[in-house]
Amino acid sequence: MTTTVENNRNLPLVALVGRPNVGKSTLFNRLLRQRRSITDPTPGVTRDPVSARAFIAGKPVRLVDTGGFKLDRRKDGGAESIAESIDDELDDLVLERTRETIRQADLVVLVLEAGELTPEDEEFIAFLRPYRDRLLTAVNKTEGGRRESEAWNLLSLGFDRVHMISAEHGDNVAELEAAIAGRLDLFPADAGESGGDGDGTDRIIRVAILGKPNTGKSTLSNRLTGTADSIVSAKPGTTRDVVEGSFDYRGKKFRLLDTAGIRRRTKISDNVEYYSVNRAIKSIEDADLVFLLIDAEEGLSDQDKKIAALAHDRGRGIVLVLNKWDLMPQIKNTFNAVQDRIRFFFGQMEFAPIVALSGETGFGVEELLNTAIRMYAQLCTRVETARLNQALEQWLEESPPPSGPQTRFKVRYAVQVSDNPVKFVFFVSRLHAVAPSYLAYLRNRVRKDLGFSLIPVEIELRSSRKDDAAKKRK
Predict the structure, then answer these.
(1) Which pLDDT score is estimated for 83?
(2) What does the alpha-carbon distance between residue 472 and residue 190 come to, in Å, rounded to a whole number?
(3) How far apart are CA 259 and CA 208, in angstroms?
(4) Would 394 be classed as within a structural domain?
(5) Coil, strand or helix: which one is 17?
(6) What is the enclosing helix (H) or strand (E) of 56?
(7) Spatial separation of the C-alpha atoms in residues 157 and 138, rounded to whole Å
(8) pLDDT in tens, 237-295
(9) Same domain flag for 325 and 353
(10) CATH no. for residue 134?
């Protein structure tokens, strides 16, 4: 399998860096002009670098919010940047991602908090010395001139200038944007844009990777994008923000949304996880397709069903991905047995493809992407009204509506009112007489005969005008 990473890499990269809780994510949201990164008083909320296209002084850049630079303090007073616990290993991964982002950045914005410098500030400033030619310094939380006199002392560290801002209130942020624009050779406003011809053939396919914690979402995301943007750790709940990535496959452009693991509400223990889960659920709105990752060893859970129901209700294409398949017993017909079990317990999703995959080894990734392309083509399909009603005549002839006095109704005609999500409206007489079983029959025939076999199809019933007019005459 060959994928080409895109990720808006042709845009100037501006990285926001600093220790935890200085307001990097608040500034990121302010520059982006939308609430994208999760902000919370808890230090270390941001872990993965969160990247998005932003417009600085009217020009596009790739803005990255990084995890905070953090030191662990030993009980004996010594400083250690890496400890031997899982949490400290995770901190080290966050720090390495931040360092890598700095190395790639065209401009680094160091965010400090007004007040005395901390050991983390001092060590981070020392680390940034080789990058001084592409460094800007912003001192946050100076609203109303608060602590500005202390902030000016930073000039003694060799900074040519410091920008006093309040990311929360917007004070002097416009001046900071002007300084950023002045340091970059910014591209034209339409740089990196990609359009489409309206038929879905060259649009960007937006995919949200969803699932319970620790099902391998970030591992799969990194494999698809050919990056290490999403932090992979054995600790559940590592991913908090939605991490975006892009790649090309078989001439199609994909945009990937790696999301936080979704647990039951009763198990959500803090505000950060609450916001992470809400962002993950909201990513369904921003996606065309959902890759629902299921731990192949654990099998389908009630939570997986709830996630799939959310995607189904929004008309998204859904692929049930059996991840970690490399850990399953290599026995003949294992996949068929697992597939049959899922179909038995999850009958309402009988149309959704099931793909066995290993994000770790790459097994099954090509099949997953080929399936995604076919699903997206179906999502963008429009059926001509004449063809639809010709098919409807055949369906009614093969299975006529009931003819009893209480159950009798007529299906007048049908139209497709939208694609992606796919929705049809059937105009009928006596709405209350249409049984769910007959509605299911119509939906199944639409899927089977009109080329929507892999995706959800919504059918809305409306009273035909002919019958409404007849009622008025009476």
Answers:
(1) 36
(2) 55
(3) 7
(4) yes
(5) strand
(6) strand 50-56
(7) 14
(8) 444 456 778 899 999 999 888 775 454 444 434 444 344 456 667 778 888 999 999 98
(9) yes
(10) 3.40.50.300
Q: In this structure, are 347 and 229 located in the same domain?
A: yes
**Is the model's pLDDT at 353 over the cut of 80?**
yes
Buried b (16+ CB within 10 A) or exposed e, 102-121: beebbbbbbbbbbeebeebb
Residue with tokens 């002045």: 182
User: Looking at 379, 394, 426, which one is the last position of a domain?
Assistant: 379
Is residue 62 located within the same domain as residue 27? yes
Q: Classify 353 as helix, strand or coil.
A: coil
Assigned domain for 198 exists: no
Say yes or no: 169 and 290 in one domain: no
Specify if 396 maps to a domain. Answer: yes
What's the confidence (pLDDT) of residue 403?
83
- Radius of gyration of the chain, Cα coordinates, nearest whole angstrom: 27
Q: Is the pLDDT score of 389 beyond 50?
A: yes
Q: From CA 418, how far away is CA 97, in angstroms rounded? A: 42
Given the DSSP bridges, would you call strands 243-249 and 4-5 parallel, antiparallel or unpaired? antiparallel
Pair 384, 332: CB distance under 8 Å: no
Return the number of other C-beta atoms located less than 10 Å from residue 350's C-beta: 10
Q: Which are the contacts of 369, defined by CB distance < 8 A and separation ≥ 6?
A: 1, 3, 224, 249, 250, 254
Banded pLDDT at 215 (limits 50, 70, 90) = confident
pLDDT grade for 348, boundaries at 50, 70 and 90: confident
Assigned domain for 362 exists: yes
Task: Identify which has the larger pLDDT, 54 or 420.
Answer: 420
Backbone angles phi, psi at 224, to 5 degrees: -65, -40
Judge contact between 31 and 56, C-beta under 8 A.
yes
Residues 227 and 144 in one domain: no
The Cα–Cα gap between 27 and 32 comes to 8
Per-residue pLDDT band for 210 (boundaries 50, 70, 90) equals: confident
42 in Cβ contact with 25 (< 8 Å): no
Task: Work out how many domains the chain is built from and give that number.
Answer: 3
Range of the domain at 171: 9-183
Q: How many residues does the chain have?
A: 474
339 and 411 inside one domain: no
Does residue 220 sit in the same domain as residue 247?
yes
Residue with tokens 């299911």: 440
Mean pLDDT of 53-73: 77
CA distance 189 to 204: 19
Report yes or no: 322 and 294 within 8 Å, Cβ to Cβ.
yes
* Final residue in a domain of this structure, among 334, 363, 379: 379
Q: Specify the CATH number for the domain of residue 417.
A: 3.30.300.20
Output 438-442 pairs: Cβ under 8 A, ≥24 positions apart.
438/401, 438/402, 441/395, 441/399, 442/395, 442/411
364 shares its domain with 412: no
Q: Is there a contact between 92 and 81 (Cβ–Cβ < 8 Å)? A: yes
Q: What is the pLDDT of residues 300-332, one digit of tens each?
A: 888 788 888 888 999 999 999 999 999 998 888
- Number of Cβ within 10 Å of residue 305's Cβ equals 16
